[in-house]
Amino acid sequence: MSKDAKRTTIYDLAKLAEASPSAVSSVLNGTWEKRRISRKLAERVMSLAEEQGYSVNVQASLLRRERSNILGMIVPKYDNRYFGKIAEEFEATARARGFFPVVTCTQRDPDLEFEAAKELVSYRAECLISTGATDPDRISAFCDASGVQSINLDLPGTLAPSVISDNYSAAQELTGLILDRCEKELGWSGPLRFVGGRLADHNTSARLEGFLAEHRKRGIAVPQSYIMATGYSAEKAAIALADFHPEGPAGIFVNSTISLEGVVRWHSGLARGGDEIRYGCFDWDPFGPLLPGNVGMVEQDVSAMLTRAFELIGKTDLSHEQVLIPCKLWPFQAPLARREG
Amino acid sequence: MSKDAKRTTIYDLAKLAEASPSAVSSVLNGTWEKRRISRKLAERVMSLAEEQGYSVNVQASLLRRERSNILGMIVPKYDNRYFGKIAEEFEATARARGFFPVVTCTQRDPDLEFEAAKELVSYRAECLISTGATDPDRISAFCDASGVQSINLDLPGTLAPSVISDNYSAAQELTGLILDRCEKELGWSGPLRFVGGRLADHNTSARLEGFLAEHRKRGIAVPQSYIMATGYSAEKAAIALADFHPEGPAGIFVNSTISLEGVVRWHSGLARGGDEIRYGCFDWDPFGPLLPGNVGMVEQDVSAMLTRAFELIGKTDLSHEQVLIPCKLWPFQAPLARREG
DNA sequence: GTTATATGCTCCATCGATTGCGCATATGTT
DNA sequence: AACATATGCGCAATCGATGGAGCATATAAC
Fold first, then answer.
1. From the CA of B4, how many Å to the C1' of D10?
2. In the predicted model, what is the mean pLDDT of chain A?
3. Considering only residues 293 to 322 of chain A, which have any Cβ-Cβ distance to chain B shorter than 8 Å?
């Protein structure tokens, strides 16, 4: 069975079953009742297929029907829970709806993103979801020219509908939480510092706006130097903070878990122990609640985002609007008083 | 350009270029010099293709050449850095070698694993790499019957070559590290507890052997009740430890970051503060070094594993042996003495 | 007994790209 | 002038599956 150089085709099965290839084909793709094939022949063919280890040649099948069933997704990285969850849920949902999901990871590299998109278009994907793409419009334009639907997730574009988190509101809430906790636990009232992300990036700028709005609401001025959007890198966050040796209380709004790594590294290295530091992070990680000084995290609602994105698939009359999905804010308890234990 | 219901084909381009479809095809797939097509025609075709936004129909192309260029990979989850890195590096390496990587995440579900494998075989993948598959032999047997090569990564099987971490040695080293640190910092000499993983699982049992070997070497007996292989879940690890209220020093060997979450949750909730607890984890996470009590972690050498796996692709004369890849042990510094600061 | 209707299956063109073979025309050789 | 070789390209079969159209035979209706 495993010796055949060539794989079993419907023609082989047809010979064995003494039937025509079209009968075999219709049995195997489930249209045999519509095509009035007898149950007897159908069963013969199916058991032969089983026996011979037959599996359709998808390439041939897809060539003939003009549908690929492929759903493509581009994600920048797999190095945090957010994108990991997106990929997992996307695959599960796609499969549940009869699609073949193909997820590809493009390392935040605009050219790689575009190459991957082109590849997925070559495979005649039904729809391409660009997640956190650095240049979503370039991808949408290309997809458009090839008649492939595209949808933006996480970062918005102007040439396709976009499903994104409500960064502004959640950032404002998180800022409020950190300020409240600083007030309550340290008797100190800001302003906070903003660490991580890229200002050119839509999400970062929306979060910064929320951050500033909450300060404004409370009548707190934020010095320019407090905004440290150092990119998505633990090192850069740690370096940006390296010269910061707080003498008194301080608070930080951390943008993404990757920056959080840098902040926590800095924090744990503080000579004075950093007991008077409070921070919160716009992103979720299961180790977050265990980090000293962390007052809360924002978790983006991946399920809701994907649900909305899937609703858009196949729709053609789309206005290219942004769909905003609220986030969940997880406040953490004040740390157990270790020192007094 | 975006109005065409049908996508541009080589026949359309042939008409526009006043040439034959075969000439167009050879220009577009790079064989035109071998086929003695003039540079002049080639350039005309290429610019027309660009202009028309042409992209090959991979389905048709792959049907004709009997090569798919698809490299499939099955991973159980994207919820930790290990599998995330595997997926990322697999994709990058595959792309660099001219393959089209398709990674699919199967939620540790044996049936889903098998379905995904069947799907990839239908796509005529050149080779399927099963990572951490719960039932790798079932997949290998199926692939074998269809003439598709299969390779096991992370967990070994008997029907295909397997590239796995040297769990035994690394576990023994990690056990030694934890015991040493308990000795040095707490003046206590074990035995340690073993938390997380599944005993039926090859990796867990190899790690447990290394764990026991190191104890044996030091003449330390490990009570049966100290082995708590509660599965891959933070909750279960936390529950298993819930009744454990150490009065004196204690040490834990934690199997995987997912279990580590549970251990750390338990640890941070200890009434006495858990200052006399030391643990280490067989797995890597960037927040690890920042967790109090964590003396070190084992990082599996993803690059080396994938390099070896890629070397096996296309080889047919394979003995189905296991290739062992050494891990890296990262010892962490003793925590800065916060309390005395 | 003749005309509908149902049943069960086959024939064949088709999807788009690839490639062995071969036919012209151009250039070189003696 | 006659022949050899090189250049440039087209023809047509092929990969495997699909599905509209149609052909027998069987059963029902009148």
1. 28
2. 91
3. none
B147 is in which domain, residue-wise?
Answer: 70-160
Reported confidence tier of residue A163, pLDDT bands at 50, 70, 90: very high
CA of A62 to C1' of C14 (A): 13
What's the pLDDT score for residue A3?
41
Interface size, chain A vs chain B, as Cβ–Cβ contacts under 8 Å: 144
CA B104 to chain centre: 11
CB A331 within 8 A of CB A296: yes
Q: Does A108 touch chain B (CB under 8 A)?
A: no
Residues ≥6 apart with Cβ < 8 Å to A158: A137, A320
For residue A179, pLDDT beyond 50? yes
Residue B79 has pLDDT above 70, yes or no: yes
The rounded distance, in Å, linking the Cα atoms of B322 and B168 is 14
B20 and B76, same domain (yes or no): no
Mean pLDDT of A216-221: 96
Say yes or no for a CB contact (<8 Å) between A146 and B265: no
More confident residue, A53 or B316: A53
Interface contact A102, partner B, CB < 8 A: yes
Query: Of A2, A62, A287, which is closest to B145 when you measure between CB atoms?
Result: A2
* Residue B97 forms part of a structural domain: yes
Based on the fold, state whether residues B335 and B194 are members of the same structural domain: yes
The tokens describing A154, both together, are 């996480």
| B21 CA to D19 C1' distance (Å) | 26
Structural domain count of chain A: 3
- Strand D positions closer than 7 A to protein CB: 7-12, 14-21
B153 and B132 Cβ atoms separated by less than 8 Å? yes
| Together in a domain, B221 and B259 | yes
pLDDT in tens, B260-290: 999 998 988 887 667 889 999 999 998 898 8
**Domain co-membership, B140 together with B82:** yes
Helix A202-217 to helix A167-181 angle, to the nearest 10 degrees?
A: 50
Which of B48-62, B186-200, B324-338 is predicted with the least confidence, judged by mean pLDDT? B324-338
pLDDT confidence of residue A146: 87
